[in-house]
Design goal:
homodimer; NADH Oxidase; 7 helices
Chain lengths: 214, 214
């Protein structure tokens, strides 16, 4: 049934812009966890994300045990050491100072996979671009990110990991492709500037040169 | 400088949930274009998306000429005919009835690429997962989608395309990887249910079985 959708007024739109501006990739968490009902609510909202063919290919593994958490942390430490070794001169010194994961303290840790073998959606829209399944999972993470920030929670997306080793450590099926490893919790601090900009790694640049017209 | 961020109250959060619920992949557009100032504003907001290492690897090509638009439409028609040919029985009949692109009428058409050769971000976070650059572009599209819907505009993401042929038709550099082809405009109708659910292709399913704990 076609019914008129809600109208989002200028006040809401200004606040939405604020939310997008203040969303941050958070690495520094307080130790106290978020309420479980809130986490459930956020995961429900995240699943309103667009997915190709309505395939909803996201699969989540919540990492709670000390043993599995240690495996992820070791994976990160090894990958991060290799990445540091490839940096040169001043960049290496700067890299060494960055805090690139919150795995030490984040109360909630989620491995987010794409099930590349799902039949939900009957393959619609994935024939020429099978990576659309992965992109659908990224959408779910983006919705979670905004909903979490709106609730005062911080989210950190860690990619300095060997994805296949994460899958094996968590005993996920072969068809599961790691899209992101997420830390979620109350942030220690809030900033409007990205940490990488504040630390002098990489500033934002402007849009202009990114749009061509043909 | 650490300053306390904005607090998003229950009213805003309820409206944000409404926005996520009413965001739709739109295929049916009115012919009248959105104001250019609004488009610019939405593209500015979209660029607040998270990007790995602050790399902002999104590159946009706005397709205006009749010749380029025809090339994209032909690409879609060929890929869609091939996809239809692979469907069986009732699914084929159903597939043939779906409207899977809005390329006939959408006033604004954007090819969104990832520049895989960008040096912005100095490679941070992409060593073991180079696909993080692509995912950053997906994030930009997700922010655009929500901001557009909040302004009353509809967005449709088309993936039934040969991505390499799109790149060649638009004369984009080799390092540009097509992430999505977007149609943007005022929607003819608004629905809270995804079109694929309304048409009987694929319903949403529930979260439960998607979360495991280890």
């Amino acid at each position: 049934m076609n019914r008129p959708g809600p109208v989002f007024d200028v006040h809401f739109r200004a606040e939405l812009a604020q939310l997008m501006r203040w969303r941050r990739d958070v690495r520094r968490f307080r130790a106290d966890p978020a309420p479980e009902e809130l986490i459930d609510h956020l995961l429900d909202l995240a699943q309103l994300a667009p997915s190709v063919g309505n395939s909803q290919p996201w699969r989540l593994i919540r990492v709670e045990s000390a043993e599995k958490r240690a495996a992820i942390r070791d994976n990160f430490l090894a990958c991060n050491a290799e990445a540091l070794a490839e940096q040169q001169g001043e960049r290496a010194a700067l890299y060494a100072q960055l805090k690139l994961a919150g795995l030490d303290k984040a109360p909630l840790q989620l491995a987010v996979f794409c099930d590349r073998a799902t039949t939900q959606g009957f393959g619609l829209g994935t024939r020429t671009m099978p990576e659309m399944l992965d992109y659908s999972v990224v959408g779910m993470i983006n919705m979670l990110w905004l909903a979490a920030r709106a609730a005062g929670l911080g989210l950190g997306w860690i990619s300095i990991l060997d994805p296949e080793k994460v899958r094996l450590a968590l005993e996920a099926p072969e068809s599961f492709k790691l899209i992101g490893f997420l830390c979620l919790g109350w942030p220690e601090e809030e900033h409007v500037e990205p940490e990488l900009a504040r630390c002098g790694w990489q500033d934002r640049t402007v849009l202009g040169r990114r749009v061509l017209v043909v």
